[in-house]
Amino acid sequence: MEYNTKRNKLIIPEYGRNVQKMIEYCMTIEDRQKRNDYAKTIIVAMSQVNQAGRDSMNYLHKLWDHLFIISDYKLDIDSPYPKPQPEQAEEKPTPLKYKNSQITYRPYGALLESMIKKITQLPEGEEKNILIELSAQEMKKLYLQYNINTCDDEVLKKHFETLSDGKIKLPESFQFKTTRSIISSSKKKNSNQKTTALNKNKKVGVVIKRNNQGIR
Question: d(Cα 152, Cα 164) in Å, to the nearest integer?
Answer without folding.
Answer: 19
